[in-house]
Amino acid sequence: MKKTSYDKLTAKYQKSLLKSLEEFVAIDSSYDPVTVNETNPFGAGVSDALNYVTNLAKKDGFEVTNYDNKVVEIIYGRGNKNLTIMAHADVVPAGDGWDEPPFKMVEKKGVLYGRGVSDDKGPLLATYYALKALRDEGLLGGYEIRFLVGGNEESGSLCMHHYFDVLKKKQPTLGFSPDSDFPLIYAEKGIINFSVKAKVEIPGLISIKGGTASNAVIDRCELKHDIDLNFLKYIMEHYHRTEAAIVTKDDVTTVTFIGKAAHGSTPEKGVNAGMMALKSIAEFSKNETLERLVKMYEPLDGKGYGCFASNKEMGTNSSNVGLISYKDGVLELTVNFRYINSCDYKELVAAIKEANKGFEVNFEGTSPLLFFPQDSVLIKTLLKAYQDETGDLRSKPLAIGGGTYAKCADNVVAFGMQFPGFDSLMHSPGEMTKKDDLFKAMSIYARAIYELGEILKK
Question: What pLDDT score does 1 carry?
Fold first, then answer.
């Protein structure tokens, strides 16, 4: 990529960015229900991460407020109009399958590895140091800049609900969230999270347990079964040892199904070990309830429960079983379903209920669909900032299945920092980002902040 004036502006902040990212990644800021209390609403690790950001911004001379260990507000400037940047300090659980410790940033051949380097600690700090560079050079003024750092993006965005709906903070005039792909995101699918419980007694089956979050494809699932030679024969005949590891001990057979992790918005990129486990016991036991559930939830497009839709603008609906458990005769699936702009929310909910008749269905959270016209000022300004910094005129604005903070506020879209053609493996083992991409993102964000500020000053 070509060198620009913004590359020169931000170059002296590269070492600070890397040092801060190393310290930030070292904090396990995944949601931890064990340590949740009044002081730590999302768990102690998330609070530690929010306090890290608070202390960093205070040290650098910004006006900072930590609201109840839910969201940190960094302010610079004053004005009736505001530019709002929204990033998050929480991460998804590490999961298994890492070559290096997930909470230790490691660099190999110019690539940085660690949980959060791409989602969203790396982008957060790239934007933060872009803001600091502009402030230090006196290139800001005439409007308010708010940098909001939340602690619950991966588990429902209750942090931004607290900020905008409970604290009644003003909405953005213009804004972006560095938490997706470049060049930018103009549309995001709507999201419906729901769970399905079925009472079903399966002879010999003791338990099933898989998944860490509803918005991630299950990469490992453990099934425990009474010792049964026929069941062992079935597993060995239908699954390769790399797909199902068998251990027999104390009259119990434990089968660990091994899939492939992926983000819940792109389940087709993964292999769902939870559905492998469910399908195996359904086929072996020939239980009609389990066979019905497999038929409904194995398809990745919602077709199994009457919620399929597709169009050119936003692609196809997606369905991901992110959590699965069976214990004491109760099977529970937690589903992360995402839908495009041709769907009606009420009709989808009705279809889900109808398809799951006889089961207990609980809707556990929704996120509305987001759609911005590509000729809007916000889209055009951010796209131009990306193009001017990279020289990439071919990549087009994207519609995605992922849900970002852009849905939590007015006049905000997701903007980077995953570059076209690179898979950062966010939400998967081995999450990574190129060091040069991190530095270039800092330049892009600096230009974008400056250009949006100039619009606000008019």
Answer: 61
